[in-house]
Write a sequence for this structure.
């Protein structure tokens, strides 16, 4: 039996926007999934099935028949390892065409049909991820979340729908920051409008200041409980505070966050294993982080 660390899920990001491609072969992806299983990861969330003019499988809907079937590889290999997979939907761009909800829903409907037809029979397919991330109601996000989640449930009622927003707590976001109480009020209102078909929510922990992080998550856990939404935590394994580019987080900071999250997280997911916590990452410091993580959480060493 595999001993599990506290992080039991990871995002998979291979329509790369803000992190570099690893250019891995299928065999290297299979190896990475073995490394994930080694530390007890049992759930994968594909960040985006489509982004702008790119898709992660040969899609007739978007005219990308030339594309390698990365989605099929992940789903089939996950099934071999008894992992669950959530499939990311299509996101037009980072501002969803300035909140053109009808256009975003219109583009996703045939895409969801195509995904389900191609992959719905694979045992690892357990749900969907809505990649339009937000911290508050902007760009008609409630219409987009409710519309997309309803499409997913209409297509496959037994699957789950997952979101991973960020906190409006501090820079680099230019809007006036919220406090945890205002955050609760905003998401109470948003879940009332758009949360009917959303099953799981995991806010990104690096978007809250460390000194106030527990307060933000307690408020989030309360609003999720009110709306019968499972409360996960997105434990980011990259650092936001040091450089403009993302690099693996120092282990003492990761350990401090994990210990804090144990109070209120139903499950911990990370963004993301392959770049920032994998033994075969393109970053040498990620390989070191993997070693420290395993020594502390799997081997019981007090590091």
């Amino acid at each position: 039996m595999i001993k599990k660390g506290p992080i039991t899920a990871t995002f998979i990001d291979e329509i790369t926007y803000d992190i570099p491609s690893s250019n891995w072969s299928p065999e290297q992806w299979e190896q990475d999934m073995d490394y994930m299983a080694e530390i007890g990861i049992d759930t994968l969330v594909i960040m985006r099935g489509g982004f702008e003019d790119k898709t992660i499988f040969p899609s007739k809907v978007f005219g990308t028949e030339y594309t390698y079937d990365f989605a099929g590889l992940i789903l089939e290999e996950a099934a071999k390892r008894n992992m669950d997979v959530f499939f990311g939907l299509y996101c037009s761009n980072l501002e969803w065409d300035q909140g053109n909800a009808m256009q975003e829903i219109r583009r996703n409907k045939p895409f969801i049909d195509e995904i389900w037809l191609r992959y719905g029979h694979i045992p690892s397919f357990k749900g969907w991820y809505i990649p339009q991330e937000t911290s508050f109601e902007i760009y008609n996000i409630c219409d987009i979340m409710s519309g997309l989640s309803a499409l997913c449930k209409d297509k496959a009622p037994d699957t789950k729908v997952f979101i991973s927003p960020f906190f409006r707590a501090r820079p680099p976001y230019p809007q006036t920051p919220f406090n945890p109480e205002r955050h609760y009020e905003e998401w109470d209102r948003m879940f009332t409008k758009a949360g009917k078909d959303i099953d799981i929510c995991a806010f990104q922990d690096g978007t809250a200041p460390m000194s106030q992080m527990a307060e933000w998550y307690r408020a989030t856990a309360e609003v999720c409980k009110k709306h019968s939404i499972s409360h996960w935590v997105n434990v980011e394994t990259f650092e936001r505070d040091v450089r403009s580019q993302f690099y693996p987080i120092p282990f003492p900071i990761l350990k401090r966050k994990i210990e804090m999250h144990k109070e209120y997280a139903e499950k911990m997911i990370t963004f993301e294993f392959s770049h920032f916590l994998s033994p075969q990452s393109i970053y040498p410091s990620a390989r070191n982080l993997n070693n420290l993580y395993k020594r502390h959480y799997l081997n019981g060493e007090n590091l």
Notes: The chain has a mean pLDDT of 95. The chain has ten helices and 13 strands. The domain at 44-264 is CATH 3.20.20.80 (TIM Barrel).
